[in-house]
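Our preliminary data section would be incomplete without showing what the modeling component actually yields. Below, a chain of 853 amino acids is followed by its predicted structure, encoded as tokens that our downstream tools consume directly.
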Amino acid sequence: MSTAPTSTASAPPAVPPPGRRRGGAWHTLVRYARVAPASVTLAVVLIVTSILTGTLWSPATTSGGALVWAAGVSTTVHGGYWWTPLTALFVPEDTVQVIVCVLLALSVLAVAERLLGTVRLVIAFLVTGVLGITLGVLGQWAAANLGELLARATEFDFTLDPTIGILGALITASAFASTLWRRRIRLLTFAVILTLVLYNGDQNNVYRLIAALLGLALGAIMRGGRLHRLRRSSHGETRNLVAAVVAITAVGPLAALLPPGGFGPFSFIAALFQREQVDVAKVLAACAASDTSNCREELSLVSVQGVGPLLLSLLPLVLLIVTAIGLRRGRHFALVLGIVVNAAMIVLPFTALPGGEATVDIDDVSALAPAIEVLLWLLAVLLVPLASIVVLIVTRRQFQIRAPRDAVVRFTILVVVSFALLAVAYLVAGLATLGGYVPEASLGDVFVSTLRRFVPAGFESVLGPVIVPTSPVVVLLYQWVGPVFWLIFVLATLRLYRATSTGRTIGDEVHFLELLRAGGGGTLGFMGTWPGNVYWFSEEGDAAVAYRVINGVAITLSDPVCHPSRAEQTIIDFVAFCDANSWVPVFYSVHGAYLPVFESLGWQTMSVGEETLMHPQTFDMQGKAWQKVRQAHNRGVKERISTLWTRWDDLAPVQQSQIASLSEQWVSEKELPEMGFTLGGMAELKDPDVRLYLAYDPEGELQAVTSWLPSWRDGAVVGYTIDFMRRADGSIPGIMEFVIASAAQHMREEGVEVLSLSGAPLATKPDGTADGEAGEESAMDRVLALLARTLEPAYGFSSLFKFKSKFNPTYETLWMAYPDPVALPSIGNAIGRAYLPDANAKEYVALARTIMR
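Predicted structure:
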């Protein structure tokens, strides 16, 4: 790492904010207490109260003395302990809760305190906690009087739970967080709470939900009554959030098994994963001697005894976790797997019922309401998988990364062969010991039993009567062929997720980068390494073209990567390659030096933008023309803005998180679709060849980030092209001018020859002419000018070009060359798709609305 030569500015340390004090752990604790005094105080109070009430070593249910501080219908309402909604927030229930609450207070609550401030945090903790418990107790009491089953089942439970106020304060504080973290905090917190409420049904979870809802309202009030409207997420953030929600729904049924047990509306699903223990030897002996009417039910219980069947019963949940992993990576196979598994989860409750049906006995009118409620609980199980399917379908555009054909073939062969081998092994062993089943089995029964080995127990009712082997070898296969197969399936799926259908190999990427380092490709050549591009190489391997095919149009990016003397032949050979594949070749963002080649081919050319170039070796910011840049630079120095020239991999995790948060904030505030192709994002700046130039304020907060793409000659870096530019809200005026000027100074010392501020789409030089073309304005020029004016309100291309003009650059026109004007509509559509590959109808509507303002 090195710092830019900005006189008084200095680079921040690995983990901002800067300034490390000596004194060890004690000073660290003191500083922490000063930053989050209320959070530290609560942690201490919880430890003290747990000692005084005895809950630190003995649960409140055992000691009994702590119940005078506990909230609930029996204590708050019937006992008249009116103070319990307050005291329940300061007394943990048992040892585990003491540990959990102290950790949450020192972490989650401390984060909330930093966002809210100490006074507002205390208010949020008390208001959401006390009101949440009070409203919960009163609602529970009223529902119990009306005969509601859940309320009556928990009427005599009590609550000692500081996490209610902690979560309420956290949601309140989310109103003051950035868009990225506000969305993450709220979505994930409510997803976890709702999962626990719906599956577990513990009254503490209901109180937490009420407190969290109160936190939303209180946060809006503290922010001045302003409600945050929903903002769009970047593609990566959307994938992460959908994956997180799917993962949370996967553990929901397990939450129903947690103490005090499943009382939630969806808790019926837990019965599908519970196993009643039976005496296997006794059941087999009895059913072998006499096949009674009870034997089928008892043998069904025997068939699911053991570790193997238990693992198999958890298969749907495991597959949902695997689905979440794939969704996070944007995999299309994960989308399909998630829909299939959730569809199976819809069917599971019905196949798991004895005989595939449910019966409810109603003796009189008074039993009607409870019976209806039970039926609604059974049907409620369907809501989560249905909602998951809807979410996956709605967001399906985010999960379009497909594995290459050869990877799919390998996956299919592995899964099919493993299934066949395991099934045949069990089938052969079963037929060899046909007389060793209880009850007596036929040839067809063994075939059906083979299928049973690969499905969770809940689906077995559709496959007929159960037979249980007694031979040790068959019993081993009976229990384990299913889990082994699905383990292979899971591992193969995770491997499939890593296979990316880019149309290029690792060898291609290495070869293309070698050619770039040798020279060629121009200042924009490094963009050819980005995902979405594939490579054509000459037969000699000394020339390459980066391109992508969209609707039969092969769009190249920047100049051919080769020695200048090979440029003409490279272009001709690539055109022949496209012709052989029935593609329309289009050279996009090429420089004027290549125009004679296209003229000789009889192609059409048009200007598609202007590249602005600076020359660090002559950069000095002297004279009137540099006044605005000089003022911005001097202000940055005066404000003690520090800079850092580095790479992504060299940053500390905290710094990486700062960049991600700043970028997500920028993306979320825009309704317009994200652009790609020649505009990089977070993924592109992580390349080890890309340099980052960061600006920090004196407190170590990130103010601006830029990324710089290298260009080489004979293996040495001779230029950098700016790509990624983001500045933080509230940064000083002129922060980007400061960053670019500082970067130019740094590059001057490194001997860099060219600093490109990249291309400005649809822009023209200040004199209104373009290199290589003068005279009358063509019809296409007028169309492009109209397009530039039309898109200006949405993407600000003209404003960006004017900003770059502050640096007194030289200009070089970027061109598009194409063989046939008749193909222009399809070419325009393909280029639009390249820039907006994932835009949906809603984003196009937002784009149109912005343009028409």
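The radius of gyration is 33 Å. The longest helix spans residues 118-145. Preliminary results of this kind motivate Aim 1 of the renewal.
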